[in-house]
Design a protein that fits this description.
- The protein has a domain at 13-58.
- It is built from 1 helix and 3 strands, in the order E-E-H-E.
- It has a 3-stranded antiparallel beta sheet.
- It is an alpha+beta fold.
- It has one helix at residues 31-44; strands spanning 13-20, 23-30, 49-53.
- It is globular.
């Protein structure tokens, strides 16, 4: 099975730290998907917290269903 690919390979990936029910999960996401994910979080509050962590996102699993956060 191949790893999922970024919906915007021309963009840099960012490191997202998502806390759900006290459990921290770290993901890579393209910049566009990360920004839409953060906006959705502000509106719906489905996670305890979401932070963008400076530095490389290399080796992290991609944000599940990242392509759903590809814009309006």
């Amino acid at each position: 099975m191949t790893a999922p690919e970024s919906p915007h390979p021309e963009q840099p990936d960012v490191h997202l730290a998502v806390v759900l029910d006290g459990q921290r999960l770290d993901f890579a996401a393209c910049l566009t998907s990360a920004l839409w994910f953060l906006q959705e979080q502000r509106l719906r509050h489905f996670a305890d917290s979401v932070d963008v962590i400076p530095g490389a996102a290399t080796g992290l699993p991609r944000l599940p269903t990242e392509q759903l956060y590809d814009g309006p």
